Amino acid sequence: MSSHLVFLDTQPQSRAVKRPLSPGALAELLRLRISAIRLIWKRYSRWEFWPAWMFYPPVAAMYAWLSVRYGGLALPTVANPSFRNGGLIGESKIDILCALMSAAPERVADGYLLPTAPLPQRIEQLDRICREKSLEYPLVLKPNVGQRGAGFRVISCRADAEKYLAQVKAGVILQRYVPDEKEIGVFYYRIPGEQRGEIFAVTQKLFPAVIGDGSSTFEQLLGKDERASLIAATYLHRFPGLRGQVLPAGQRVRLVEAGNHCQGCIFRDGGHLITDALRQQVDNISKDIPGFYIGRYDIRYAADEDLARGNFKIIELNGAASEATNIYDERNSLFSAYQTLYQQWELVFRIGRANRDRGFQTAPVLDVLRDAKLYAAVSRAYPASD
Fold first, then answer.
1. What per-residue confidence (pLDDT) applies to 16?
2. Is the pLDDT of residue 35 over 80?
3. Distance CA 241, CA 249 (A)
4. What value does the mean pLDDT take over residues 124-133?
């Protein structure tokens, strides 16, 4: 019987040797860590940038207390009886937009629904609407069910529209784009049974921009801006093609198109913009919308003089879940913000109870939660907002 010799390799396996960082690399790593900590501190020291889990627990407590005080957890769902869940969650933007177009067609940026369908059919419908309604690029595409500007895009050409519709399978609104530079949010309410409504608050919206200097990259320009540096990740996600790019001297990049704070828009208290003409126009339009009592109009206009005369375009109307967004003015204290939100939610509950007393039925809480869960699932497919 032949024997077999087995030789075992007793030499130790070679291992990568971890070399200590050089003093220069260690100093650079330490500098980056300190910069990151400083940025986090600057961001969280300004409450307007707090994440929802930090900011909203007191608001949830307000909601719970008001539901006890006014006698119903679901009262906000009948604050606007004609809106699904009162505009709390799951409402159809096209239904609201159609009501607006019926009430004041000359004051509304018209919009049209592109329902769920195979992509070629949706593109064909988009082309047909553009022809029939004289819509030209750029135009707006946004989800029919959405919150806080999610999925809002300004579309510059047909190829971009096709790309958007291929990504968003849910119903989408095709809307005429309003190029006016100025925008406000007008929070309005009317107590059921009263003849006149009131403007609760106005938010002036400012759209930040960076201007190239011919030597700095897009990231560096964001870093030089005290405010933009705090939410640079939002802007970089919106403009991936500008990463590492040096902007030519004088080139201006508008950082956000949607007038939403969470998308990077700057909010200021706009109480000085309230005029009798604006108040009258908003009240007249609101009373012509069946079943609407409280919510926020998003309005664009060319100049303050136009707004003062009531010459503007409404681009959206939100219901019970909308906020008096003037609270996000950085000059406001956290206490004043919560104070305003309490007053706002008290109005929602007060109106909801009045409508319940008039015979309207609140939505079942489980149905509202189901709508919230459905929206959370569908909105994952929404693209980054402009």
1. 53
2. no
3. 18
4. 96
Per-residue tokens: 246:
């040096």
Spell out the residues 6+ positions from residue 226 whose beta carbon is closer than 8 angstroms to its own: none
Q: Which tops the pLDDT comparison, 245 or 103?
A: 103
Give residue 234's pLDDT.
81
pTM: 0.84
What is the SS3 assignment for the chain? Answer: CCCCCCCCCCCCCCCCCCCCCCHHHHHHHHHHHHHHHHHHHHHHCCHHHCCHHHHCHHHHHHHHHHHHHHCCCCHHHHCCCCCHHHHCCCCCHHHHHHHHHHHCHHHECCEEEECCCCHHHHHHHHHHHHHHHCCCCCEEEEECCCCCCCCCEEECCHHHHHHHHHHCCCCEEEEECCCCCEEEEEEEECCCCCCCCEEEEEEEEECCEEECCCCCEHHHHHHHCCCHHHHHHHHHHHCHHHCCCECCCCCEEECCCCCCHHHCCEEEECHHHCCHHHHHHHHHHHHCCCCCCEEEEEEEECCHHHHHCCCCEEEEEECCCCCCHHHHCCCCCHHHHHHHHHHHHHHHHHHHHHHHHCCCCCCCHHHHHHHHHHHHHHHHHCCCCC
Model confidence band, residue 386 (pLDDT cutoffs 50, 70, 90): low
CA distances from 82 to 114, 293, 321 (A): 22, 10, 14
Whole-number average pLDDT of the chain: 87
Terminal Cα-to-Cα distance of the chain (whole angstroms): 81
Query: In DSSP terms, which residues pair with 296 in a beta bridge?
Result: 187, 318
The answer to whether the beta carbons of residues 378 and 145 sit under 8 Å apart is yes
Give the model confidence (pLDDT) of 147-191 as tens digits: 877 888 999 999 999 999 999 999 999 999 999 989 999 999 999
**Among candidate residues 375, 319, 355, 366, the one with its CA nearest the CA of residue 75:** 355
Is residue 107 within 8 A of residue 163, CB to CB? The reply is: no
